[in-house]
Design a protein that fits this description.
The complex is a heterotrimer of chains A (343), B (251) and C (408). Chain A is mainly α. Chain A is built from 15 helices and 4 strands. The chains are: A mainly alpha (343), B alpha/beta (251), C mainly alpha (408).
Chain lengths: 343, 251, 408
Amino acid sequence: MDAVILQVLNGLDKGSAYALIALGLTLIFGTLGVVNFAHGALFMIGAFCAVTLQRILTFSYSVIDETQKDFLGNPLKVETPYVVSWFGEATGNSIIDWSVPLAILFSIPVMIAVGFTMERGLIKHFYKRPHADQILVTFGLAIVLQEIVKAYYGANPIPTPAPDALTGSFDFGVLIGFGENAIIYPIWRLVYFFFALAIIFMVFAFLRFTTFGMVVRAGMADRETVGLLGINIDRRFTIMFAVAACVAGVAGVMYTPINSPNYHMGMDFLVLSFVVVVVGGMGSLPGAVLAGFLLGVLEAFASMNEIKAIVPGIDQIIIYLVAIAILLTRPRGLMGRRGVMEE
Amino acid sequence: MGILEVKGVNKRFGGLRALADVNLTVAENSLHAIIGPNGAGKSTLLNCLVGKLVPDTGSVMFDGQSVLGQTPHEINQMGISRVFQTPEIFADLTVRENVMIPCFAKRDGTFRMRAIRKVDAEAEINEMAEKILVDVNMQDRIDHHAGSLSRGDKRRLEIAMCLVQRPRLLLLDEPTAGMARADTNRTIDLLKEIHANRDITVAIIEHDMHVVFSLAERITVLAQGSPLVEDTPDNIKGHPKVREAYLGEAH
Amino acid sequence: MIGLNRKDALLFITVTVLVILAPFILNPFPEGTAMAQMFNAGYPDLMQRFVIFGILVIGFNILFGLTGYLSFGHAAFLGIGSYSAVWMFKLLSYNVVPAIILAIVVSGIASLIIGYIALRRTGIYFSILTLALAQMCFNLAYSVLGNPQKGINLTNGETGLQVYTSDPQYLMGENAPELPHLFGLVMRDSLELEIGSWAFTLNAGYYLCGVIMLATFYLSIRIFRSPFGLMLRAVKSNQQRLSYTGLNTRPYTLCAFVVSGMYAGLAGGLLSSMDPLAGAERMHWTASGEIVIMAILGGAGTLIGPILGSGFIEYFKNILSKINDNLLHQWLSFLPDGLEDALVWVLHFFVGKGWHLTLGILFMLVVIFLPGGLVELGKRTGGLFDRFRNAAEGSGKERNQSPRKAAE
């Protein structure tokens, strides 16, 4: 039992990332009718926002400290981040320590800018073009974005640790009535899960309870009719694109302590997020979220040693197999509606 | 016995009852019009006949065979051809190719892999295509891109594509919608000629009364998803129920 | 003429002549010069890639160009073909014929399975499904089926599949060559020609691939002009009308998918025949993306487009990856120092290892401004030239343009 719960927990962090990316993909697809192959790149840019902020915060000047000597006996150069000298030792260091959560604030304006530029500068011109062209141009953009990041940050993963207070593990089993050390779980992963839940909740609330959201939902259901009502949908859709970019971006920011970001992380996640969207049902927001968590957990179970002993390597392909099975039995996915992507 | 027998067909979309207990018989070799105000269920009915929609209950028999559960291409192979409200043609292909495709479908069935033989070498198919284009008076546009034709020509091309298959039943969905009067009249003449010279039963869904009364032999009036009356055009003209249905819409 | 109409026959003959003369055409600069180092492309390895990727994209074009179904997973079939061929080398002998045959058969079966699943949906869905299924094949090849320690080892995982001396090679003759060969003609053998200061390499492997490429090109022309090809174009143009015309679209698209998958498998088999190695990286989605780029860049749906596109990309990939900072400094040395450094710094990102960035940008530009690819560019420049000539002649009577005729 405790092993089962542990695997469910293990699947939640990846599942959260899938769910958040798939949510953004579905939003963009449902509103703009465009499949955004560059959506993984937005996730990756978000992650590198965290890297960038960390670099900015640790931007240092060096002072030669005569009182200390290095091992050659020369005066030691001490690197002091500007932040530390401005805010003092304690505050400065804790700002650096908390750079990943702070990067959320940093990433939101960046992602809005990126999303806005992408939509207005490029994707807008592709609404009337065939789907193949939309796929191709966003795919090209994804390559360009990831190559730029690679050129600037290099090809190696860059470690971006979580705040000290949130690193390490805690005994989750005790909380729910198991013995000690039954379920040990990293704190940050749980943080990530709750963070993802909060974001998902915010997106749904936004769509549910605001006029803006109502129009967007109506637009997702029937674009033409809403257009006939004289509502300027295009502007709203631009905003929706920026929102989706933000969701992907913050998902990327918070993911960095779990896996050190590298330039191709976006595409790795994108392929699986597409599978998530297909399984959940194209155009269905709850479907995307549900399928994201489901497949994340499934992947975690498949990577258990007991399972891998029976079917070696099953963890690498389980998601695809499930997607195929679902597609053959329920062609519209778990929660897909009729009429979406039928032609 | 009619060539097309619709019995007790119901179709719901969520809470909306689009078709309510529709019974309809189209006699062989007749020219039958289905009219009715907007939202009467005309297009839904048509979609049920060609396999695009499946009715919730009821039966649709074509020449003694059920069409329910059949795919559109199977229904076409049974001998039902459909003309759409907005012309559905192969816009990227030439007029000749547009007409050749139904010829292939007629001769080779739903699928046949002929990857090496040349299209140009299919003399019989080419002949059929050229002949039908002469019939609809489009022979001078044979090598044009279908997408570059005028709307009236697109409609005539689409009708030619259906005719070349020698269907037993030709279904037309508002064939003159959005056409100028001259084009409309030419289309009426074409349909009259088709009906007179070929053994094709024609069922037409139409909004335009001018078209209906200059063509139809029998008329079914559909209102709110069920047939109101069915009679000859002369009797329909002054029928109080029909008037009511249309006037009701005007209010 | 040769079963083609005049225009197609002319095109085919032109391509044939180009393939035969490529070792000469691609080496325009005398041996040993700086220009030769940079721009000469007449060496066997690169020329083989030209024709092999030509085959791959010709096949891809039968699917994408004719039906409009954008497959994002064609590299999977390339990889499957490569592995199959290497297995033939391991089991039978280094003769390339069984290798190529098995490559085609296995990739045909794989494309039948993948096509059957993916073609249940159309449009974007189809692209996503092919992408996902191909990525699954990549994972299978990279880790699941390639674990030397336990279970089945079909692909040898990260290391890649290669031939070892311990392999059985049941049909290996006494004096048979230890390298891939066609009934004794070793693929790596070349005839070196030196004419003046020029050097040309006539490579056996290149000519084998070239002949096969011409055969596949011929087949693709026949498919384009066949009733089958007509149906595929009809699928792209209006699938709804096609099914209301009594034709079942799915077997047509599935056939196109399998044919193009077999083309890709053939290309993979040839890659392994030139160099008996197969690795999973050939199946990665980036490789699939590259195939799409080649097809679009050349001009999807045209006959010559795939050959132009694959040649262009392979050639520039080769050149761009050769350029480095030193070379840039050398070229730009005529500029003032500051400007030179700045320009080199900028260009640095686009050359050498950064050529992917150039590729991505080029790709976007083509999709945005030139959806018809190089073929359309050619037509447009041709049209521009005609207009220019007409204007120069100054005769107003040339104005009566004939009604727009179909190009093909």
